[in-house]
Amino acid sequence: MPAPSGFDHVPTSKLNGTRSIAAHPCKNRKDGAPSVGMVDAKIIKGGPTELTVEGVAGILSKGAFDEFISAVEHEQFECKSGLYDIKAAKGKIELAKDVSALANSAGGYLLIGPATQKDQLHNKDEVKSVSQFTSSLFQPDTYRNILNAFIYPPVPNLEIHWHAGKDDPTKGIASILVPLKSVDEKPFLVVQSDVDSQVTGNLFGYFERVGDDALPTSVHMIRDMMKDGKRYGDLERKLDNLEGLITKLGPNQHVSSPPVKEENSVKQELLLLRASEARRITQLLDVPSFFLIGAPLELVKLNGLFSSKSVEYQAISDPPVYRSHGFDLNPHTPIQHVRGELIRRVTNGRKGLELWQDGTLIFVGRNDEDFLGWAVRRKQGERNAYINNYVLTEVVSLFCTLVIKVFGSIQDAPEKARVGFGLTTGDVQSFELSTHPIDPTVGSFSGKKIPAEDKTFWIEFDLKHAIAEVEALRLLQEIYHWFGFMDEQIPYVDFQSKPPRVDHIRYAPG
């Protein structure tokens, strides 16, 4: 694959001795590297340097990347000469494999930029050169979202950064640090790993048939079984016993979301993880998509969530609409009860809606001509995601309406709520948003284009006197400002109202 602009790409097909995580998630690397000691580095007899985690951090902080030359890879230090192809499933899984391998051992650094070569004298992979690239080619949030979506449980406390070089601050390298304290949560499983002959394995998960109420064997159950018996001398035998529980997932099968600790129920990191899980379940991981998240800013419990007569259940069963044939939040599928934690509705490949017992509300949908980019057809081979401004306005407004309705129904209702809107890249290179009406008969579009990246916008507001259209405008302002528009350019808004708000009467016909 050709190198991206500004980056001297070196192929990165070597597996560095890492076993397939799907088959052996806790296997150490084959190079037999000893544990890192207390010093910053040690010289392996004959010349190469084995850096400690502290030593790597020191070099990164100085930007003196030439100091990596002659360093050898070991169980806490791995290098990739080129950027991961995160537009492709193989690249995402390779990233998850490499990070989970560190997390299943002793933690440490994964560096993107240093190129290694097998040293014949010492039979170790030794850094021979370092390629640097601009920060625009590495999006930490995108990498974090992929890792959260592809590793179960998500590796906690990951530190993902781009580091500027000391000689040319416009170029640098990237690092992913798995702290030692994160290792306590192992084993970590890669939940998708069947790509091709180089990256093979089975998916951890369960087979779900439509209308089947049988309790499946989920990812977290498999992981808990492994953790309960993680005397690592016996792990091979335990994995053999688990082979009957591991199956490849078909198009209509889902990977369950991880168990949630109550004290983290409103943390932003957990909300984004749940949105990633919702996109996976709705089969939106590899297409441009968007999500909306609503959450109370304090711990709550929806006691009526599993009662069909409750306000919250009815809100998911019959979400609010502004107009017939509009762009609504309704997947038009039956409600599923999931693990006694949430209720969910999914139209595979298009949109999904779910509500958790701790109050987390999530909507996911496509960001292309089949939903958020309705009426704008991409040309063959084009990698641009067009955002239809009135679809955007309508779904954001309806979601804010749903948040206020659900949270207002809670006994001892929370005082404040948080709402987020996120865009994910899928296979596109740019997003484009216009303030002008779109003619659905022509599909014409002329707006502002920006490079695609995973991006989330957040607002918070008091629930007691909240007006959905007012809060929707606040969230839309964050989105339009990112594209470079001024407030007065935002369409479908009544600026004469006090305060200004979205005016759904001004929408184009559905």
Structure commentary:
The protein is an alpha+beta fold. It contains 9 helices and 22 strands. It has helices spanning 53-62, 89-103, 140-150, 219-228, 235-242, 268-281, 311-317, 389-408, 468-483, and strands spanning 41-43, 49-51, 77-80, 108-112, 114-119, 124-130, 151-152, 159-164, 172-178, 189-190, 289-296, 336-338, 342-347, 351-356, 361-366, 384-387, 416-424, 430-433, 448-451, 455-462, 493-494, 501-502. The strands form 7 sheets. Strands 12-13-14-15-11-17-20 form a 7-stranded antiparallel β-sheet, with helices on both faces. Strands 3-4-9-8 form a 4-stranded mixed β-sheet, sandwiched between helices. Helix 2 (89-103) crosses helix 3 (140-150) and helix 8 packs across helix 9. It is globular and about 75 Å long. The chain starts with 40 loop residues before the first strand and ends in an 8-residue tail after the last strand.
Major sheet, described briefly? 7 strands, antiparallel
Q: What's the end-to-end separation, in Å?
A: 42 Å
Query: How would the global form be characterised?
Result: globular
Number of helices: 9
**Mean pLDDT, rounded to whole units?**
76
- SSE class: alpha+beta
Query: Could you give the order of strands across the largest sheet?
Result: 12-13-14-15-11-17-20
The proportion of residues forming helix, as a percent range, comes to: 10-25%
Low-confidence stretches: 1-46, 193-202, 204-218, 229-262
- What is the number of beta strands? 22
Question: Oligomeric form of this entry?
Answer: single chain
Strand content: 15-25%
Indicate the radius of gyration in whole angstroms. 24 Å
